[in-house]
Task: inverse folding
């Protein structure tokens, strides 16, 4: 079974558990972890890897710019994590930071 590796955390990826949409990507994982643990694990979405059972990196997603949402399906025991891949979000944050620094 493939897994998602983010930082030091690994989560079991469900079959067909990755969906790309306009400027976002969703990962559906099977996990009994608490919501706060999932949220903390996906705090930095800039380097999400899909690894094989043997630990080989199959795909690396380096374009995540932020966590958009987390949905939990209690019956299935899964979470669906939606990650923004919209670079404009990062650019806006940088512009705001520059403006704030200039205002001081």
Result:
């Amino acid at each position: 079974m493939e897994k998602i590796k983010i930082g030091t955390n690994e989560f079991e990826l469900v079959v067909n558990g990755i969906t790309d949409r306009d400027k976002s990507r969703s990962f559906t994982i099977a996990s009994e972890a608490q919501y706060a643990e999932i949220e903390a694990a996906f705090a930095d979405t800039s380097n999400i890897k899909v690894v094989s059972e043997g630990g080989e990196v199959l795909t690396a997603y380096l374009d995540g710019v932020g966590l958009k949402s987390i949905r939990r399906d209690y019956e299935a025991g899964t979470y669906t994590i939606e990650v923004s891949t919209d670079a404009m979000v990062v650019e806006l944050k940088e512009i705001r930071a520059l403006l704030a620094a200039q205002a001081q």
The two ends are 52 Å apart (CA to CA). Residues 3-103 form one domain. The chain has a mean pLDDT of 94. The longest strand covers residues 9-21.
